[in-house]
Amino acid sequence: MKKKLGELAAWVGGTVVGDDEVEISGVAAIDVAQAGEITFIAHPKFLPKFAETKASAVIVSKEIPSSQKPLLCVNNPYLAFAKILTLFSQKSYQPKGIDPNTWISPTAQLGQEITIFPFVLIGERCRIGDRVTLYPGVFVGEDSSIGEESVLYPNVSIYPKTVIGKRVILHSGVVVGADGFGYVKEGKKNVKIPQMGKVEIEDDVEIGANTTIDRATLGKTIIRRGVKIDNLVQVAHNVVIGEDSIIVAQVGIAGSTKIGSNVILAGQAGVADHIEIGDNVMVGAQSGVGHDLTSNQAYSGSPAFPHREWLRASTAFPKLPEMRKALMAIERRLKKIEEALSSEGKEK
């Protein structure tokens, strides 16, 4: 594929400085880009590499003075780079049909132009939409549905009664619909609480490798439209994650937690059960959320509290040993003063 720079500018809503007829055939990082490729500068620290790059054009946030290369000027170079990379990496879908080494229930409903690789199992009364791709080893439990143009990579397990929307991507090893972790004590014995609910994943969700999403005890565990979940994330029973939220690797979300829209949970954050997190909240890496979080704020620390307060507190942590020594010295001096005053009082 080749595109003129002017066409790419129209694609990303930018403007060209220089030759807009230059042809672009690929995308690359600034230090490895070659003639015919376009690269980008998203941070001033990469400006020294601008003069060295062999790229035919550069995506920038503002015009670089005395540039000898054509520039594509946009508000967000990284976003423009992602859109152009998507354009060049897209391949037209070519259905491969159904491999004979699969097992599909006679009661399952299959859409048009599907691709089902070997060793896939599709259970009773399942519904598979148009242009769905199921890679080897995918298991789809009974009464589940998968929306059109969704892709399930190898060894994805979909437990019964799971609903998956359109254009969903599930990477290798994802498990959707396993039993929620629910037990009640009878003396010392752990008695299992049956998990009778389901999981519903809405359109345009992407879930990373080896992430697990548990079915609800009753009702639904819900992943709303546009959510992006990284690898190795645990989502417990009856959790609801709001639209366009981002959940980064190794996050754990306990049962019945409600997460708003456009929330970011950074790596290794932990969220206790029955918590409510408002819209547009950002939770820092390794934070522990044990109480509700108000919308439109950033939080850090364990327990999590407002990020700016955490920054102030974190600057004091390295000084705690010195502060302790100073306090102990003050206590000793104060004790001597008190003893001296007490002695004077007795003499009088």
In short:
The chain is an alpha/beta fold and 348 residues long. It starts with a strand and ends with a helix.
Q: How would you portray this structure in words?
A:
- By secondary structure, this protein is α/β, with parallel strands linked by helices.
- It folds into 3 domains: 3-89, Udp-n-acetylmuramoylalanyl-d-glutamate--2,6- Diaminopimelate Ligase, Chain: A, domain 1 (3-Layer(aba) Sandwich); 97-309, 3 Solenoid (UDP N-Acetylglucosamine Acyltransferase, domain 1); 318-347.
- 17% of the residues lie in helices and 28% in strands.
- It contains 4 helices and 40 strands.
- The strands form 6 sheets. Strands 8-11-14-17-20-25-28-31-34-37-39-40 form a 12-stranded mixed beta sheet, with helices on one face. A 10-stranded parallel beta sheet has the order 9-12-15-18-21-26-29-32-35-38, with no helix packed on it.
- The radius of gyration is 28 Å and the shape is flat.
- The model has no long low-confidence stretch (mean pLDDT 93).
